[in-house]
Amino acid sequence: MSRKPIIAGNWKMYKTISEARDFARALAIAVRNVMGLEVVLCPPFTTLFALREELAGTAVQLGGQNCYFYDEGAFTGEVSPRMLRDAGCTYVVLGHSERRQHFAETDGSVNKKVHAALAHGLTPIICVGEKAEEREVQLTDNVVIVQVQRALLNLEPLAASQVCFAYEPIWAIGTGKTCDSREANRVCAIIRETMTRQVGPGAADDVRILYGGSVKPDTIAGKMAQPHIDGALVGGASLDPHSFAQIVEFNSVLKKS
Fold it and tell me: What is the number of domains present in the chain?
């Protein structure tokens, strides 16, 4: 099974509209000849429309960093999947560890958001991963399996085949630490095995699984050499157009060689 790689940049709470425009112009030039993979930017909501304008005509896609599970309503401060589609998004990050830690995101709410995102034609990038203390007591596999199972609850195989997963060990996010490539691949294989048991081998084979956690230009090669890693969810390195372009270009060259 040949799965098209995805390199997604998660800007978190960084960049004003003018900063986002400057980034988009630089990135568009840097990746103009890239082929063989999908490039996605997940910026703050306030910059989506500006980036949609700047990236028009390029292959770079947009994603939201979160969404709610209703189309509209009295939910102050929330953004619906319908609104993300209207703003030009094709992807949405769901269940990021920072959402779980700081904003009381649960496996149940992630599942509702997955259903809502798919209903509006958005591809969810579902984040799963363990804390440092969970890894220390060898709970990594159990934590990841449960998060995957609950994220996919009540999804038919066809719908499940349209999601992406991102394995992001929490202890590696923003710390400068990165998971060993073979270990990251092992956990990504567990994600695929869990999907096979829950929604069947067809959907599991189709789903792209990304690695996230201090991804940098000098660490991407080891991750992308692994059979179960189909891309990267990039944090800090996605804030600089040149470092992000290096990660993207490596994967474009990899697929053409």
Answer: 1
Residue 193 resides in a domain: yes
Q: Is residue 1 part of a domain?
A: no
**168 belongs to the catalytic site:** yes
Residues 38, 96, 98, 228: which is the catalytic one?
96
Average pLDDT per block of 10 residues along the chain, 257 residues long: 90 98 95 91 98 95 98 98 98 97 96 98 98 95 98 97 96 86 97 97 96 93 95 96 94 58
**What is the Cα–Cα distance from 59 to 62, expressed in whole angstroms?**
10
Find the length of the chain.
Answer: 257
Provide the residue range defining the domain that includes 75: 6-256
Residue 112 falls inside a structural domain? yes
The residue annotated as part of the active site, out of 38, 134, 168, 228, is 168
Joined tokens for residue 36: 């063989």
Helices 17-30/241-256 angle, 10° precision: 30
The pTM assigned to this predicted structure is 0.95
Give SS3 for 125.
strand
